[in-house]
Amino acid sequence: MTPILTCEHLTKTYGIFCALDDVSFTIEPGKIVGLLGENGAGKSTLLKILAGMLTKTSGSAQIAGNEPGVLTKSYVSYLPDKSYLQEWMKLSDLFTLFSGFFADFDLQKAQGMAKDLGLSEKARLKAMSKGMQEKVHLILTMSRRAKLYLLDEPIGGVDPAARDYILDTILTNFSEDASILISTHMIADVEQILDEAIFLKQGKLILHAPVDELRETHHQSVDALFREVYRS
Ligand SMILES: Nc1ncnc2c1ncn2[C@@H]1O[C@H](COP(=O)(O)OP(=O)(O)OP(=O)(O)O)[C@@H](O)[C@H]1O
To answer: Smaller CB count within 10 Å for the chain: N or C?
Structure first.
């Protein structure tokens, strides 16, 4: 099977500081992969490069055979760590914007998710709480029929009940040959939906394995393993 994502010796430096150090891995279609690591490990840097928002220093990244750029943006759905949406916009405005911008945006799906999550389409972003705004970003990102979803800390501010709905939605609504790379510190919550985990430490990839294999080998949850690996 052709990988949806291939990174080879991917490196990013900011001045003399190396934020991503010789990172190589592949992700097959249909996989949900957790991108895990302590603060400053390089998770957002990696996702930004893959989303075409940041240029690499060296190495390569290929998404369905193409370097991150204009073409890959048509089939990569990215949820960044900081909001890029205009606060005065209503949810309905955002749906119109995304429908016009992305050919793969499924308006019905977005409207259904908004209803299930108790969001009014008439509400403006600036009138929403942090958690509600996070839900909006997730709805917009997950309502695209993309090949690869890049989610940077998507559920940090969302309440536990909504978190379950969102994880469920991620599981049931993305197509079989799409993949998700999800950066999160909420490992215990997200672990149940992960197929694989990648551990980043100080810019280096220190582990990439199926979560079942990790649990079997280490006789503990991925959350517990993470705490052990990153204990300072
Ligand atoms: N524009 C920048 N200029 C200089 N250094 C940067 C820049 N962006 C990120 N860094 C540094 O690169 C490293 C990796 O940052 P990154 O945001 O990728 O980490 P992260 O794993 O996403 O962290 P967190 O979990 O805290 O969000 C950090 O040490 C950060 O200070």
So the answer is: C
DSSP run (H or E) holding 74: none
Q: How many residues does the chain have?
A: 232
- Name which residue sits closest to atom 30 of ligand 1, judged by CA: 40
Spatial contact of 186 and 155, defined as CB atoms under 8 Å apart = yes
Ligand 1 neighbours by CB, cut-off 6 Å: 14, 17, 19, 37, 39-45
User: pTM of the entire structure?
Assistant: 0.95
ipTM of the complex: 0.97
Question: How confident is the model over 135-190, as pLDDT tens digits?
Answer: 899 999 999 999 999 999 988 778 888 888 888 877 776 677 899 999 998 899 89
Domain ranges for the chain, please list them. 5-229
* Whole-angstrom distance, CA of residue 19 vs CA of residue 216: 31
Q: What is the CATH number of domain 5-229?
A: 3.40.50.300
